[in-house]
Amino acid sequence: MSNFRRSQNQSNPNKLNAILSTVIFILILNVTIQIWLLYAALNNALDNNKEILIPAFVASFVLFLVGICCIYYMPTGNTNSVK
Amino acid sequence: MSKKEENLNKNWKKDFPIEKQQATNVSRRDFAKFLTLVSGGLMVGSGLVTAKAYMYPKEEMAGEHFVCKKEEVPVGGTRAFVIEGSTIPYILIHLETGEFKAYEQKCTHLSCSVFYKPGTGIIHCPCHEGSFDAKTGNVLAGPPPRALPKLDVFFKENAVYVRAVQEEKIG
What we know:
The complex is a heterodimer of chains A (83) and B (171). Chain A contains 3 helices and no strands. Chain A has 83 residues and is mainly α. Chain A has one domain (13-71). Chain A starts with a helix and ends in an 11-residue tail after the last helix. In chain A, 24% of the residues are buried. By secondary structure, chain B is α+β, with helices and mostly antiparallel strands. Chain B folds into 2 domains: 3-55; 65-164, Rieske Iron-sulfur Protein (3-layer Sandwich), CATH 2.102.10.10. Helices cover 29% and strands 28% of the residues of chain B. Chain B contains 2 helices and 10 strands. Chain B has helices at residues 3-15, 20-55; strands spanning 65-69, 78-82, 89-94, 100-104, 115-117, 122-125, 130-133, 139-141, 150-156, 159-164. In chain B, the strands form 2 sheets. Chain B has a 6-stranded antiparallel sheet, with no helix packed on it. A 4-stranded antiparallel sheet of chain B has the order 5-6-7-8, with no helix packed on it. Chain A: Pfam families: DUF6755 (PF20540). Chain A: Keywords: Membrane, Transmembrane, Transmembrane helix. Chain A: The chain crosses the membrane at residues 20-40, 52-74.
């Protein structure tokens, strides 16, 4: 039976390379935004501004979910390559 | 070729049975997984900050506290004080304009002791050259991310008292 994983793994290594690089790029972007969100939340918490805390946490959570979803698209390696 | 080298040539492939391409794939995959783990950690950290702020809010100072007599602090002078039952150090500043101001003595950057520079209207932090406005507590220069927390100063005849800042009601 053919599925997403199998057909992905059969694609050209260049394509897999591009997919993996893109996934890593998105993850780094996510982590950067999350660091910024955490920094902003911490500063505002210490300043007694609570309005920003829950939105920052929700945004961080959404970015984490995006990261988890990206992991699904990560290729497991081209099984078609010559051993 | 010596026997040792021969042996090495014969066996190294057995010792490292992973193809180069696979090896790079593995490490990048692991890197991506690690990034997701970091992402999860940051999410949890953000959650902890939020939970702490809502469940254990910073307690406001209750009541009014006597600091000293007006004439004990000359113009441009300061006086350090601590509220009973608390360990937070404060300073009372007698500005050149005649006003009295009270601020927390801990710099908002890394909690160094700040001091008032007489005649300049600036509260200075010597650790990393942070400067605060002595009238408002706002940051003027340097690395501090927030204004200095302040207390309301009021007088009863000749005595200087402080209390928590009354919330300004907007609208």
